[in-house]
Automatic annotation (TrEMBL):
<keyword id="KW-0812">Transmembrane</keyword>
<feature type="transmembrane region" description="Helical">
    <location>
        <begin position="12"/>
        <end position="32"/>
    </location>
</feature>
<feature type="region of interest" description="Disordered">
    <location>
        <begin position="81"/>
        <end position="101"/>
    </location>
</feature>
<keyword id="KW-1133">Transmembrane helix</keyword>
<keyword id="KW-0472">Membrane</keyword>
<protein>
    <submittedName>
        <fullName>Transport system membrane protein</fullName>
    </submittedName>
</protein>
Amino acid sequence: MIGIESAGRGVLPAGVPWICVAVGLLLFRATVLHCRRAPNPAIDFSLLSIPTFHAATVAGSLLRAGAGALPFSPARVFRRPRRNAPSARKNMPACETKHRI
């Protein structure tokens, strides 16, 4: 997580985030191999061979990632220019703003 979190920010020296990502992937691979060989694994990957369980797991993971990103989406919404914002009004034609009686 620290590798992905700091990859483009310049917080860590160059190359360190990618080393963290590589170490994380190696540890993940080691965990998967261990869980497949253990007699009573913490995560039973054979359950993923059931199509409905596999679909639910993948969809649930994507939904969880989307829900985790939800707090950051209002900031993007509020940054979009609106039609009646002062910055958008400067490009409107002035002939429609004055009315004669």
